[in-house]
Structures are given as C-alpha cells and as structure tokens.
C-alpha cells in the first residue's frame, strides 16, 4: 500500500518553517489504518513484548492496537502534569522547542521487554527521553517503531543503540 499518499503536509505548523506530517488522512481510511497497523506489527517479528509504550499524543493511536495484538500491556508516556499517579520525568529537545515527558513510576517492571511507538521520529529527542524513562524503571527497549521518520533531522542518531523500524521516510 502507498502509505505516503495518505500523509498530508501542513506548512508552518506548529510554528513558521516547520512542515508538519499529518497522519489524519491515513487514520480516516479504514484500509490504510488497518494496513499500517499490520505493517507496524510486522516489525516486531517473533519478539516477546511485555509492554508497548505510546508517546503523547499521536503515539496513543497505534500503540494500544499493537499491544492488543502482541498480548502486551499498553503504557502511556505523557506531557508533564497529565498523569494522575506518581511519575518519573525526562526532558527533551525537539526541532521547535523543548519539553518534558512523564511515565507512571509503576508502569514497567524490571526486566520487561518494551516496544516504544510514536508517530514521527524527527530530532530523536522525544524517543531518546522515552527510552531513558523505560530503562530507568528497569525495562529493556527491544525496538522503537515509528510511522514516519524525517531523516533530514538525523533523529536516528540519538537512538542508534536501539533497533529502529519505520514505515515511511522523508
């Protein structure tokens, strides 16, 4: 399937000079959504996965689907102040600013195998922060997978110690 035909460019969002890759057209087409989920699932092969971590907010779309198919739990990583229980946090830089992410302190147990999923790998700061949170809780990141990678931003360099799988590259 030509997944790229379902991705829409939005100029100057969220700030001037940024071209946002909008996955909404893919999400509203049932066949494209299903095929994308199947392709992301296929990236895991036969690996044992205990938890799938989805990154706020568009990572929440595919991560629970993957968790259900893998027989794994789903763990949300959210922007600061959005989780109700005790959390640990990590800061990160992205192409248009900085931020902080949190995970519940009891979300991952020592030795659990973790798949990290987000919609876009850009500068790699978000993915790197999420992997650090997983490892801080004692989990093992077995793979980071993404719908889209913006290769010109070199984000893969920040997570080069982890296996990375991507559906579309720009």
TrEMBL record:
SUPFAM superfamilies: PRTase-like. Pathway: Purine metabolism; AMP biosynthesis via salvage pathway; AMP from adenine: step 1/1. It is an enzyme of class 2 (transferase). One of its GO terms (biological process) is purine ribonucleoside salvage. Coiled coil: none annotated. One of its GO terms (molecular function) is adenine binding. Signal peptide: none annotated. Its main location: cytoplasm. Its EC number is 2.4.2.7. It is found in: Cytoplasm. Residues 26-148 form the Phosphoribosyltransferase domain. GO terms for cellular component: cytoplasm. It catalyses: AMP + diphosphate = 5-phospho-alpha-D-ribose 1-diphosphate + adenine. Keywords: Cytoplasm, Glycosyltransferase, Purine salvage, Transferase. InterPro entries: Ade_phspho_trans, PRTase-like, PRTase_dom, UPRTase/APRTase. Homodimer. Catalyzes a salvage reaction resulting in the formation of AMP, that is energically less costly than de novo synthesis. PANTHER family: ADENINE PHOSPHORIBOSYLTRANSFERASE. Belongs to the purine/pyrimidine phosphoribosyltransferase family. This is Adenine phosphoribosyltransferase. It comes from Flagellimonas oceani. The gene is apt.
């Amino acid at each position: 399937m030509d997944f790229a035909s379902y991705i829409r460019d939005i100029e100057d969002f969220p700030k001037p000079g940024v071209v946002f890759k909008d996955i909404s057209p893919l999400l509203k087409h049932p066949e494209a959504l299903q095929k994308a989920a199947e392709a992301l699932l296929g990236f895991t092969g036969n690996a044992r996965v205990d938890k799938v971590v989805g990154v706020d907010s568009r990572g929440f779309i595919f991560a629970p689907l993957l968790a259900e198919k893998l027989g794994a739990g789903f763990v949300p990583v959210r922007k600061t102040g959005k989780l109700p229980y005790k959390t640990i946090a990590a800061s990160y830089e992205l192409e248009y600013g900085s931020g902080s992410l949190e995970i519940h302190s009891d979300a991952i147990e020592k030795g659990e195998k973790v798949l990290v999923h987000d919609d876009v790998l850009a500068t790699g700061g978000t993915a790197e922060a999420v992997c650090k949170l997983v490892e801080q809780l004692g989990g093992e990141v077995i793979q980071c997978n993404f719908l889209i990678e913006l290769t010109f931003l070199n984000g893969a360099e920040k997570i080069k110690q982890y296996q990375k799988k991507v559906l579309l590259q720009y």
